[in-house]
Design goal:
The complex is a heterodimer of chains A (120) and B (108). In chain A, 0% of the residues lie in helices and 52% in strands. Chain A has strands at 3-7, 10-12, 18-25, 33-39, 45-51, 58-60, 68-73, 78-83, 92-99, 108-111, 115-119. The model of chain A has no long low-confidence stretch (mean pLDDT 96). Chain B is mainly beta. The chains are: A mainly beta (120), B mainly beta (108). Chain A binds chain B through residues 35, 37, 44-47, 50, 59-62, 95, 100, 103-109, 111-114, and chain B through 1, 30-31, 33, 35, 37, 42-45, 48-50, 52, 54, 84, 86, 88-90, 95-102.
Chain lengths: 120, 108
């Protein structure tokens, strides 16, 4: 079935790095833009980054620009988020999500279960 | 980047109709999409585009837009609709995505 499974979360000290992965299955991964969205404890959803279907364009939220890097390997159906210079305020559950631009922009129709990142 | 504004909390009596709103400049360009999120779970897309429901979403959920304000309407709210509802859209630059702060819906 169509699914996204994140991995790589954990506890990390401030200033250190962490790499998240998102394994896609059940659909043509290379045909979709992919996003990372995070949610701090008790807070709302915050968009983190997007990478286009062919990896040609990447955009970031202001709070992570210059520290986080989104990438993808279409041959392995995998999305990544390299997080450097981590701060306490990066503590959150990180979700990967598929954007179905065939129906409308910004419609995230498939989400992973999330992976928790704690910076402390 | 632009912002999307939502009321923090809304309540509705069981079986009644409730409207949740999302306001922002980008909604004059892009449609809002709506997500339902229950505690400890990932968000679920409930409305996308002009007024479209993904497969499996009950038809009591509907969406609309007036100017820079998008609305999610639940007609005949059920106990299982109690959740956080968030909107999103691309911002006016077309390079970043914005989410509203979320609305906690309580079904009384």
């Amino acid at each position: 079935q169509v699914q996204l499974v994140e991995s790589g979360g954990g506890v990390v000290q401030p200033g250190r790095s962490l790499r998240l992965s998102c394994a896609a299955s059940g659909f043509s991964f290379s045909s979709y833009g992919m996003h990372w969205v995070r949610q701090a404890p008790g807070k709302g959803l915050e968009w983190v980054a997007v990478i286009w279907d062919d990896g040609s364009n990447k955009y970031y939220g202001d709070s992570v620009k210059g520290r986080f890097t989104i990438s993808r390997d279409n041959s392995k159906n995998t999305l990544h988020l390299q997080m450097n210079s981590l701060r306490a305020e990066d503590t959150a559950v990180y979700f990967c999500a598929r954007e179905d631009t065939a129906v409308t922009r910004g419609a995230f129709d498939i989400w992973g279960q999330g992976t928790m990142v704690t910076v402390s | 980047s632009s912002e999307l504004t939502q009321d923090p909390a809304v309540s509705v009596a069981l079986g009644q109709t409730v409207r949740i709103t999302c306001q922002g400049d980008s909604l004059g360009i892009y449609y809002a999409n709506w997500y339902q999120q229950k505690p400890g779970q990932a968000p679920v897309l409930v409305i996308y585009g002009k007024n479209n429901r993904p497969s499996g979403i009950p038809d009591r959920f509907s969406g609309s837009r007036s100017g820079n304000t998008a609305s999610l309407t639940i007609t005949g709210a059920q106990a299982e609709d109690e959740a956080e509802y968030s909107c999103n859209s691309w911002d006016s630059s077309g390079n970043v995505v914005v989410f509203g702060g979320g609305t906690k819906l309580t079904v009384l």
